[in-house]
Design goal:
single chain, mainly alpha
């Protein structure tokens, strides 16, 4: 059961990463960097915003790898790592749900990543 939930968390992380990158670029980052309003009139600002957005995606890919490594650990997964991922993502998902009043599409997946991670330890 531990392995199943860690793999589920890794898959949810991958889906979130690709959704974030693809739809974020089309619906938020692309239009933002074509804007010349305020700080976005600077080329550097546009470059940094796009870089930071997609860096988040790369970090999620790294996290998915950590979850998969934990799922395939010979003895048992690193509990501190899995608890850290679980708590951060449950908190982030619930904060996102409350802060956006459920309108942001990411909160269910963020919460799921956290719950799957924590459920792997039960």
């Amino acid at each position: 059961m531990t392995r199943f939930f860690l793999i589920a968390a890794a898959v949810a992380t991958l889906v979130t990463a690709f959704t974030h990158s693809f739809f974020g670029e089309r619906r938020l980052i692309g239009p933002l960097v074509t804007s010349n309003a305020g700080i976005m009139s600077r080329v550097l600002a546009k470059q940094v915003v796009r870089f930071a957005w997609h860096l988040t995606t790369l970090l999620w890919l790294g996290q998915a790898l950590l979850l998969l490594r934990a799922a395939n650990a010979a003895s048992s997964p690193d509990r501190a790592l899995v608890i850290g991922i679980g708590v951060v993502y449950v908190a982030a998902g619930l904060f996102d749900a409350v802060f956006t009043r459920g309108k942001h599409i990411g909160w269910p997946m963020l919460t799921a990543i956290g719950l799957f991670s924590l459920m792997s330890l039960v």
